[in-house]
């Protein structure tokens, strides 16, 4: 992955691929942060690259069971998985990432492996 023509992350695993990449501002510093999914044959992991300055990023694991592959509660949950929500849920000025939610009847709800990722300042 590149930011401003500089390599910020290299894929080093033998298998898997970047399935999704989201550009967000998690720590509200007006420098883009990135959330990315590493997909594998039997599941995926979700990571964040948090901007530490205009040149450096810190990698953080959000969840190692993204997509609910091992934690779905029913076929309804599997069919209605919602990828993630980015929102300041604790009113600290930073956005959090809530992963592995389900959406039924236009309402989001947690499933057994819902993870919330908080940014430390």
Summarize the model shown.
The protein is built from one helix and nine strands; from the N terminus they run ββββββαβββ. The chain has one helix spanning 75-79, and strands at residues 2-3, 6-7, 17-24, 33-40, 43-51, 57-63, 81-87, 96-104, 107-117. By secondary structure, the protein is mostly beta strands.
Notable traits:
9 strands; 3-stranded antiparallel sheet; 4-stranded antiparallel sheet; 52% strand
Structure description:
It is a single chain. The protein is mainly β and 121 residues long. It has one domain. It contains one helix and nine strands, in the order E-E-E-E-E-E-H-E-E-E. It has one helix at 75-79; strands at 2-3, 6-7, 17-24, 33-40, 43-51, 57-63, 81-87, 96-104, 107-117. Strand 7 and strand 8 form a beta hairpin. The model has no long low-confidence stretch (mean pLDDT 77).
How is the topology of this model organized?
Blueprint: E1 2-3, E2 6-7, E3 17-24, E4 33-40, E5 43-51, E6 57-63, H1 75-79, E7 81-87, E8 96-104, E9 107-117
Antiparallel strand pairs: 1-2, 3-4, 4-5, 5-6, 7-8, 8-9
The SSE string, one letter per element, is EEEEEEHEEE
Principal-axis shape equals flat
| Unreliably modeled segments | none
- Strands of the widest sheet, in order across it, are 3-4-5-6
| Rg over alpha carbons | 15 Å
Please report the distance between the alpha carbons of the first and last residues. 24 Å
Q: How large is the share of residues in beta strands?
A: over 45%
Please, how many domains?
Answer: 1
The number of helical segments is: 1
Give the fraction of residues assigned to helices: under 10%
């Amino acid at each position: 992955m590149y930011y401003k023509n500089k390599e910020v992350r290299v894929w080093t695993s033998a298998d898997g691929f970047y399935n999704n990449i989201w550009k967000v501002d998690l720590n509200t510093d007006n420098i883009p942060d990135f959330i990315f999914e590493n997909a594998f044959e039997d599941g995926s992991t979700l990571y964040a690259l948090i901007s530490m300055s205009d040149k450096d990023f810190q990698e953080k694991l959000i969840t190692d069971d993204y997509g609910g592959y091992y934690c779905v509660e029913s076929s309804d949950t599997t069919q209605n998985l919602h990828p993630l929500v980015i929102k300041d849920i604790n009113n600290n000025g930073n956005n959090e990432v809530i992963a592995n939610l389900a959406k039924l009847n236009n309402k989001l709800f947690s499933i057994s492996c819902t993870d919330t990722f908080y940014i430390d300042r």
